């Protein structure tokens, strides 16, 4: 397949002409993404009758705009009130909320929006250029390779544990233990379900996410009258001009390279069916810290700690659509809803689509590019005014958070049981925060543990129980090498820094 300049020029013009479908999609996506627990796939399912009645190109434009905007706005509550709007924004809370606590909420939002928009924009353009080859990548990755990719995400537990090794590892192992609840991946034997049918599919992730972050944070907020210190609140209240926004833009420009390479991490993870934004965000955060010259600043309100996960989870948006358009396998639940709309319109998805209907095959990614371009003028005013949320007194904020999030826990599966799960994990998260355990470590275990077990057991079954099967893939072996470097490099760097510090102290004493 070669580039047809006239085709792409026509697709861009037609996509801009669909502004009437893209702008409402962006607006709805921003609202849905900022509400914890409300996912784009649920919204699209609710709106399915409308999208089925629309022209196929207009329906795709609306769905793609909503999908992209949802990934962008998930970082808003993560930064402002330590409540991720989705699993992909969970890693953003680590540094984003700390920036808010320091009175830099507007700068953090600008960092998040710029990284999200340009991470998604760059990867969308890259997909247009290399789509035929990227489609093959999803086919070549095996279960063995996925084991190593998931280990990249799980090593973030060790990164978080670096400040308090015992508590960090306990929290991570507790999360992995919770992640094993449900039926096992091989024999479907119930484990730790206590007779509850609602747990047979495992712990529902939305209520767990809501409980660990939203409910627990609401309980912590009760103890204070404001989300931030009085000095930071005065700075935000006085920040009626654009200085903080421009400051955030300067931070973003300094981190332009980080936006690029972490966006591509998101793209590559997104191409793998079922991987998703959560894995991409955690892997990108871990890799960003690994290669940083100042790893000790991560977790204290470091701009790079906001850029990396936000760029990665928006790089995922184009990646998840690659296997859907190229081989007919949806890369995620949102892509599956889009696939239903396409099939309803009589469009056969797969390799033949690029020859028979290139306006649809390539048009999806052109529409995504246009959607991100249209978001650019919206993000700066949004950051300026959204940052004022932190000025709402906690006696008003706490009931609002609890009301919305508990309803969101119910909305995912419509079980009252899930509301109880959210409240239970809220209590667990509150105890963890008050005793110095990191709730992010627990969440990583719950999110990635079941996936890791699934791919590990699948690999061992293929290898008939031989552990050497984990080293049977050339791609996997390369990934094993990179993982070893990821683990060993921080240890070597810390020891080298300790020797340098000791030598400097000895020299100074002499």
Number of helices: 24
**Element pattern in H and E:** HHHHHHHHHHEEHHHHHHHHHHHHHH
**Average residue-wise pLDDT:** 81
Side by side, the strands of the main sheet go 1-2
| Main sheet: strands, sense, barrel | 2 strands, antiparallel
Q: Which percent range describes the beta-strand content?
A: under 5%
Poorly predicted parts: none
Description:
- By secondary structure, the chain is mainly alpha-helical.
- Helices cover 75% and strands 1% of the residues.
- The chain is built from 24 helices and 2 strands.
Chain-wise SSE layout:
Layout (H helix, E strand, L loop, with lengths): L4 H13 L1 H16 L5 H7 L1 H6 L2 H18 L1 H7 L10 H10 L3 H36 L2 H19 L3 H15 L2 E2 L6 E2 L13 H17 L8 H9 L4 H12 L1 H16 L5 H14 L12 H25 L5 H12 L8 H4 L1 H4 L1 H24 L7 H20 L2 H19 L4 H24 L11 H36 L1
Antiparallel strand pairs: 1-2
Helix pairs in contact: 1-20, 2-5, 3-17, 5-8, 5-16, 5-17, 5-20, 6-7, 6-8, 7-8, 7-16, 8-13, 8-14, 8-16, 8-20, 9-10, 9-15, 9-23, 9-24, 10-23, 11-21, 11-22, 11-23, 14-15, 14-16, 15-16, 21-22
Can you give keywords for this protein?
510 residues; mainly alpha; two-stranded antiparallel sheet; 24 helices; globular
A few lines on this structure:
The protein has helices spanning 5-17, 19-34, 40-46, 48-53, 56-73, 75-81, 92-101, 105-140, 143-161, 165-179, 205-221, 230-238, 243-254, 256-271, 277-290, 303-327, 333-344, 353-356, 358-361, 363-386, 394-413, 416-434, 439-462, 474-509, and strands at 182-183, 190-191. It is an all-alpha fold. A two-stranded antiparallel sheet has the order 1-2.
């Amino acid at each position: 397949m070669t580039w047809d300049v006239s085709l792409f020029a026509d697709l861009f013009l037609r996509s801009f002409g669909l502004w009437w479908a893209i702008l409402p999609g962006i607006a709805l996506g921003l609202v849905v993404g900022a509400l914890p627990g409300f996912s784009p796939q649920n919204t699209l399912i609710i709106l399915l009758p409308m999208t089925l009645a629309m022209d196929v190109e207009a329906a795709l434009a609306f769905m793609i705009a909503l999908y992209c905007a949802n990934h962008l706005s998930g970082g808003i509550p993560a930064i402002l009130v330590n409540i991720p709007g989705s699993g992909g924004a969970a890693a953003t809370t680590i540094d984003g909320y700390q920036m808010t606590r320091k009175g830099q909420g507007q700068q953090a939002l600008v960092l998040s929006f710029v990284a999200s928009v340009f991470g998604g924009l760059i990867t969308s353009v890259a997909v247009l250029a290399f789509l035929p080859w990227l489609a093959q990548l999803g086919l070549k990755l095996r279960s063995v390779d996925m084991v190593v990719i998931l280990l990249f995400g799980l090593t973030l537990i060790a990164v978080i544990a670096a400040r308090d090794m015992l508590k960090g590892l306990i929290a991570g192992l507790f999360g992995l233990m919770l992640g094993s609840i449900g039926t096992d991946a091989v024999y479907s034997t119930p484990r730790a379900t206590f007779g509850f049918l609602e747990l047979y599919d495992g712990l529902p992730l939305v209520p767990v996410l809501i409980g660990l972050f939203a409910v627990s944070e609401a309980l912590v907020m009760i103890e204070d009258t404001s989300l931030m210190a009085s000095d930071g609140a005065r700075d935000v209240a006085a920040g009626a001009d654009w200085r903080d926004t421009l400051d955030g833009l300067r931070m973003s420009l300094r981190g332009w390279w980080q936006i690029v390479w972490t966006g591509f991490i998101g793209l590559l993870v997104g191409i793998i069916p079922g991987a998703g934004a959560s894995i991409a965000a955690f892997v990108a955060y871990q890799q960003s810290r690994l290669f940083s010259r100042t790893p000790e600043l991560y977790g204290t309100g470091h701009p790079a700690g906001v850029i990396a996960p936000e760029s990665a989870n928006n790089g995922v948006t184009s990646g998840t659509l690659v296997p859907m358009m190229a081989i007919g396998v949806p890369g995620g639940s949102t892509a599956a809803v889009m696939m239903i709309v396409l099939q309803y319109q009589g469009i056969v998805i797969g390799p033949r689509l690029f020859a028979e209907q290139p306006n649809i095959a390539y048009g999806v990614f052109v529409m995504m590019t246009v959607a991100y371009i249209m978001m650019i003028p919206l993000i700066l005013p949004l950051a300026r005014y959204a940052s004022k949320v932190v000025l709402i007194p906690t006696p008003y904020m706490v009931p609002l958070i609890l009301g919305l999030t508990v309803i969101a826990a119910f909305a995912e599966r419509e079980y009252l049981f899930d509301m109880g799960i959210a409240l239970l994990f809220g209590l667990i998260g509150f105890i963890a925060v008050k005793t110095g355990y990191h709730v992010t470590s627990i969440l990583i275990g719950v999110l990635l543990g079941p996936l890791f077990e699934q791919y590990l057991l699948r690999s061992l079954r293929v290898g008939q129980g031989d552990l050497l099967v984990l080293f049977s893939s050339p791609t996997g072996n390369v990934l094993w090498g990179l993982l070893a470097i990821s683990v060993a490099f921080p240890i070597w760097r810390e020891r080298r820094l300790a020797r340098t510090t000791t030598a400097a102290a000895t020299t100074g004493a002499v």
